[in-house]
Structure formats: structure tokens, C-alpha cells
């Protein structure tokens, strides 16, 4: 049945509503999009169901199907519906959409959230002011706000902002701040957000061109306390999310939440290789220049050895382009590293980097030729894999150069 039939016939809607609330339905997601919902008496697709729920402003049922299906299907319907229905009568639905789009939408959807908030302001200033003052109201009080003798923290999930005010510059203050942050992020907080840091630290990571922002200063300061590094790892894994970025970093320098923590830990100790690889796997590196900056800083800090090459190779494989640098070539062009490079070309990556997952290894193996090409470009400025007489290729030490030629011919032919 179509949405119009339920909108025009109140009795049909009441029967559907009862069956939905009593969970007399099944969802079929297999083989077609959108999913179909079968109740005892009706069959609807997810778009029609969402339109009906929007019309009757059944926010509780909308939330059920957001969880059972996905937000993207709901977002499409809510977007179309709210474009047509901008009246005071639909204020609850507009509010619901603004809150959920901020929480579950992609980073670029923030512009749509701002439009929705402007519409809400025009319809009802009190609702608008409450959203700006306290957010959705869904956050537990102790996670929306925390205050001790050492810190004051406050979060707003509609504005996607987190204030961290350090009253006393001590390690314990930053421990409390990280505890608050990690507890907050256990909730349904937006994945793209801004951190407003009010503290005395102006520390920055030793990474050229890395944007200097409040979140950068905060995490660089936390990094200065080794006992808090475990909290930084916990934070990083909680907030990594593709297509999401810190709001206090300019769009052209987009940095995924966890960037400053991961990069800082990666430069502090080589043991954080798995954290770096997991970060690179999730990060939308096509739109995140800081990943390129980190590649250079990582080699400057640790050099290239069989121990560090797996991380460097993984970064190069996931970043669109890490530009050639003469010092990359100097570092790579040693017997030990060229032996490693030969293994990289010929054996499963997981044998060289046991910390990666089987899924990550599968991705590396699927694009082996492209990944090898990227690494040869970054380290030797080699553009064409089959140009074996090029002076740049000839700079690779013999006998590895000759062996690489045979291996590359085979890779190219696959």
C-alpha cells in the first residue's frame, strides 16, 4: 500500500499504528531497496512508512525504525517532507530532524542543520533558544555538564560543541577532562563536533602544516602526561568515523576526530602502529590533508626501517598522494629496506605487519599494484611502473633494481 492511503484514511492509519506499536511486523531488507515492512494487515516500503510516520509525527516509531533500518533512508524522507511542511504544526518533527541529522548525518549535513534551526527560530523562538542552550535534552545531566575544583565541561549535542575549561593546570585536571570526554562519547553524541578548550597550554605536535586549533592544543597537552595515553587511545577508538571531522578545523584542512591524539601517540612511541593503521583505514584521507603531513613527520621521527615501513606503507596506500621527498629516497635506498620492499611486493602484507586485520590485509592485497606504485612514487619519484630505463628507477640499488623489474612486470600483467 502507498502512503497516501494511510494519510487519507484515519482508520487505516490507526490499525497500522496499533500493529507497529505491538511489533506485529517483519522487515525484509534482502534483494531490494528500500526495505519492505510487513505487518499483519499491510505491506509498505520504508519510504512510504516513513512518510506516514512523518505526517502523523510519530516520533517514537520514527526512532524505532531509524534503529532497525538506517538513518539514511529516514533522512531522505525527512528532507523531502520538511521542505514542504514548515508550519508550527510540524515543529516537533522539524526539531526531531534537526537533532538526528546532527547526530547521524555526515559532516556536510551541518549546513542543513543550520537551515532547520533557522526555520525553527522563525516558528518558535523558545524552542530554538532551548536547543541552543541545552541541546536535545537527551544527554544525561552528568554527561552534559561536569564541574569540579579542577575543571568545568559542558556539551551541547545540537550545536555539536564540547567546552573544556581547565581551572587548574595539573595532570589531574586533564585526567578529569579525559574521563568526562570519554564518558560523554559513550552517548549518542554527534560524530562531527567542535572542542572549545580553555586552558593555558599552547603546545602543538611536531608536524609541519598541521592546523593549530583548540582541539590540537588540548590533545597536545594531554599527550604530555604519559599516564593519560591509555585514555587517549580509548578516546580515539570511540570517535573515529569516516566522513566526520572536527568543527574547529577549517574545511580545507579537515581532520577526523581522534587525529591529534592518534598522531601524537604515533610520534611518541612506535608501539602505536595498530592505532595508526586503524585510523588510516577509517579516515576519509581524500579530504583530509593532515594525513599527508603525518606521513612525513612519522619518517622524520622514526626513520624508515623494517619496523616502521609497514606503517609508512599503509599510510601511503591510503592517502591519495604522499609527495616524493629526497629524504624518503635516502631512507629507503638501503639493503635492509629494499629487502623489505621486495617482500612487500611479493608476500601478503599481513606477514610483514601482523597487527592488521584480515580485512585490512585483503584490501592491501586487492590493490597491491596500486599500493606498490604509490610507494615507489613517494620514495623514488617513479611515475610509470614499466619504465625500467628511467633514471629514477636506475637509482635503486643493484641487485634489487633488477629483481624489482621482474616482479613489477608480473604485477602489471595481473
In short:
By secondary structure, this protein is of the alpha+beta class. It is 57% helix and 7% strand. It folds into three domains: 3-134, no CATH class; 137-297, no CATH class; 303-414.
Describe the structure.
The chain is α+β, with helices and mostly antiparallel strands. It folds into 3 domains: 132 residues, no CATH class; 161 residues, no CATH class; 112 residues. The protein has 23 helices and 7 strands. The chain has a 4-stranded mixed β-sheet, sandwiched between helices. A 3-stranded antiparallel β-sheet has the order 1-2-3. Strand 4 and strand 5 form a beta hairpin. The longest helix is centred in the N-terminal third of the chain and has 14 residues. The two termini are 51 Å apart.
Shape call: globular
- Quote the average pLDDT: 96
How many structural domains in the coordinates? 3
Radius of gyration of CA atoms, rounded to a whole number: 26 Å
Low-pLDDT parts are none
Share of residues in helices? 55-70%
Structural class: alpha+beta
Helix and strand pattern: HHEEEHHHHHHHEEEHEHHHHHHHHHHHHH
Q: What count of helical segments does DSSP give?
A: 23
- What is the rounded distance between the termini? 51 Å
Q: Strand tally, please?
A: 7
How can the largest sheet be summarized? 4 strands, mixed
Arrangement of strands in the largest sheet: 4-5-6-7
Share of residues in strands: 5-15%
Amino acid at each position: 500500500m502507498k502512503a497516501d492511503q494511510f494519510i487519507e484514511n484515519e482508520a487505516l492509519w490507526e490499525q497500522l499504528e496499533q500493529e507497529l506499536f505491538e511489533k506485529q511486523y517483519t522487515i525484509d531488507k534482502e534483494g531490494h531497496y528500500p526495505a519492505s515492512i510487513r505487518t499483519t494487515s499491510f505491506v509498505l516500503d520504508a519510504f512510504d512508512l516513513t512518510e506516514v510516520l512523518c505526517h502523523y509525527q510519530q516520533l517514537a516509531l520514527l526512532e524505532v525504525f531509524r534503529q532497525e533500518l538506517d538513518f539514511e533512508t529516514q533522512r531522505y524522507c525527512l528532507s523531502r517532507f520538511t521542505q514542504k511542511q514548515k508550519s508550527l504544526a510540524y515543529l516537533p518533527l522539524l526539531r526531531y530532524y534537526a537533532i538526528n541529522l546532527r547526530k547521524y548525518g555526515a559532516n556536510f549535513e551541518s549546513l542543513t542543520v543550520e537551515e532547520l534551526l533557522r526555520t525553527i527560530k522563525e516558528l518558535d523562538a523558545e524552542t530554538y533558544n532551548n536547543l541552543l542552550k541545552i541541546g536535545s535534552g537527551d544527554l544525561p545531566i552528568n554527561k552534559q555538564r561536569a564541574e569540579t575544583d579542577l575543571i568545568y565541561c559542558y556539551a551541547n549535542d545540537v550545536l555539536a560543541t564540547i567546552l573544556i575549561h581547565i581551572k587548574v593546570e595539573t595532570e589531574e585536571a586533564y585526567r578529569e577532562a579525559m574521563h568526562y570526554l570519554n564518558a560523554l562519547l559513550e552517548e549518542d553524541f554527534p560524530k562531527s563536533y567542535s572542542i572549545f578548550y580553555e586552558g593555558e597550554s599552547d603546545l602543538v605536535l611536531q608536524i609541519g602544516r598541521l592546523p593549530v586549533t583548540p582541539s590540537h592544543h588540548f590533545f597536545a597537552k594531554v599527550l604530555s602526561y604519559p599516564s593519560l595515553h591509555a585514555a587517549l587511545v580509548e578516546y580515539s577508538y570511540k570517535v573515529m568515523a569516516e566522513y566526520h571531522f572536527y568543527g574547529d578545523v577549517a574545511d580545507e584542512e579537515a581532520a577526523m576526530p581522534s587525529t591529534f591524539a592518534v598522531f601524537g601517540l604515533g610520534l611518541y612511541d612506535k608501539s602505536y602502529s595498530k592505532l595508526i593503521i586503524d585510523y588510516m583505514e577509517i579516515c576519509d584521507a581524500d579530504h583530509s590533508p593532515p594525513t599527508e603531513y603525518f606521513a612525513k613527520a612519522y619518517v622524520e621521527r622514526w626513520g624508515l626501517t623494517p619496523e616502521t615501513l609497514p606503517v609508512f606503507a599503509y599510510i601511503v596506500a591510503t592517502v591519495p598522494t604522499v609527495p616524493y621527498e629526497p629524504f624518503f629516497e635516502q631512507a629507503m635506498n638501503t639493503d635492509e629496506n629494499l629487502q623489505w620492499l621486495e617482500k612487500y611486493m611479493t608476500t601478503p602484507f599481513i606477514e610483514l605487519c601482523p597487527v592488521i586485520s584480515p580485512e585490512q590485509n585483503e584490501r592491501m592485497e586487492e590493490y597491491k599494484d596500486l599500493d606498490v606504485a604509490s610507494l615507489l612514487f613517494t620514495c623514488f619519484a617513479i611515475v610509470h611502473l614499466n619504465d625500467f630505463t628511467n633514471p629514477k628507477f636506475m637509482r635503486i640499488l643493484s641487485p634489487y633494481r633488477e629483481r624489482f623489474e621482474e616482479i613489477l612486470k608480473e604485477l602489471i600483467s595481473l
